[in-house]
Amino acid sequence: MTSAREEILARVHAATAEAVAPERPALAPSGPVDVDLFAERVADYEAVVERCAPEEVTERVAARVAGLRVVVPDGLPFAVAGSVADDGLVAADLDALDGVVTTATVGIAETGTIVLDHGPGQGRRALTLVPDLHVCVVRADQVVADVPDAVRRLDPARAQTWISGPSATSDIELSRVEGVHGPRTLHVLLTR
Question: Is residue 72 part of a domain?
Fold first, then answer.
């Protein structure tokens, strides 16, 4: 005897068995990339945006995290003096740290969003959501015009975290509360 659920699923499967997914047209890039717009939109989210040359990244990160205990992911392309390496730290360990330093995969000019695919230099998802400060280095050549351009650069099989400013919510009595779902402070170093 089949259940109602099984019967419905069997009907859905039969109805869609021969369906062919429509071919998706190739999309041309959306247009010129405006790195200044990206910086402006990130700042609109109350994140700190600091521009620097590639050779200044290590110095600027050091200045931002001076006196703090920060964790760094495997594959970070620069050293962070005094940092803690992520060797599978549990949430309580991450919560005891002041911040995290990562790179990014894509920055989206139109929305001011940073996307991590958790590859080298970006760490696992918990690493970027638990500490109170996230310092993220974004290269100008990683900035794209809009969301469709970003999606074209991303591997859909990889986990992704899309970050639009510091964590905030207005779920509780419509009052803005920061740090509920992630870092309270986002500091973006935008480099050439």
Answer: yes
